[in-house]
Write a structure and sequence with these properties.
Mean pLDDT: 76
CATH architecture: 3-Layer(aba) Sandwich
Shape: globular
Structural class: alpha/beta
Largest sheet: 5 strands, parallel
Helix content: 40-55%
Strand content: 5-15%
Order of helices and strands: HEHEHHHEHEHHEH
Number of helices: 9
CATH superfamily: P-loop containing nucleotide triphosphate hydrolases
Radius of gyration: 19 Å
CATH class: Alpha Beta
């Protein structure tokens, strides 16, 4: 499945959720929409974990189809731009790094509309909207900080020793160990600058997450039920509040 197909499918799911549900009784209490954010060190296996999570979330216990979830990993930025009715080509101006004063000024001089500063804010607004709709897995882009005010989210950070990440990157990208390490360190530094510049936080601050998982010790296939169990506990706790009920779309594990 190519990236454009993934985005189109994800957006169709999200648009369907914006339609009124005729079967829901008027005035029925609803819990906060569930969602997940995955922050990661480069090569820690976030994309793999996302796929494992999506497979489990799309099937209820007993094999019955569950309410659909959508995974946005590398295509999160493109999807956010399209949610704001902006062309996906603008993604090249918004790497997961800080937008420097020089870059922003050049963008405005060459007639980039909206400006890079406005683009960043509109992308953040789109990510927040995705979380408000619920049943999405958002990978990267400081989604854990953008959505931290929403009670239905579970925020997960994936880490692993550099050596393990280098081996994974080499296998995925078919490159040498030296090239893999250089690209990993460059990506990690860029993400750190992005989070510090835009939010004033360290990218890997454990206090910003509900779970921090070392995928060298707990691989993504084993981490998936752990994450879903934590999400279920979060939602069950929220559902115990007066007048609330457990949100739909999260299978019991």
């Amino acid at each position: 499945m190519n990236s454009n197909t993934k985005i189109d499918l994800g957006l169709k799911v999200l648009q369907a959720r914006l339609q009124p549900v005729s079967t829901a009784p008027l005035g029925a209490p609803a819990g906060p929409p569930p969602f997940l954010t995955l922050s990661r060190e480069t090569g820690a296996g976030a994309a793999t974990l996302g796929r494992h999570l999506l497979a489990r979330l799309e099937t209820e216990a007993g094999g019955r189809p569950a309410e659909p979830w959508a995974l946005f990993d590398k295509d999160l930025l493109t999807c956010a731009l399209r949610q704001q009715q902006l062309p996906g080509r603008l993604a090249e101006f918004l790497p997961e790094d800080r937008v420097s004063e020089v870059t922003a000024t050049i963008g405005e001089l060459v007639g980039l509309h909206p400006s890079l500063w406005e683009l960043e804010h509109r992308v953040m607004a789109a990510i927040l909207q995705l979380a408000h709709l619920g049943r999405v897995i958002l990978v990267g882009r400081a989604a854990h900080l953008i959505t931290r005010s929403l009670p239905g989210g579970l925020h997960v950070r994936l880490v692993a020793p550099l050596e393990s990440r280098v081996h994974r990157f080499m296998a995925a990208q078919e490159c040498s160990a030296a090239e893999a390490e250089a690209r990993i360190l460059k990506s990690d530094r860029a993400r750190e600058r992005y989070v510090r510049t835009n939010f004033g936080h360290a990218a890997g601050d454990a206090l910003d997450f509900d779970l921090v998982i070392n995928t060298d010790r707990i691989p993504p296939s084993q981490a998936a039920p752990l994450v879903l169990g934590a999400l279920q506990n979060r939602l069950d706790s929220l559902a115990s509040a007066p007048g609330q009920k457990r949100p739909a779309g999260v299978p019991a594990y």
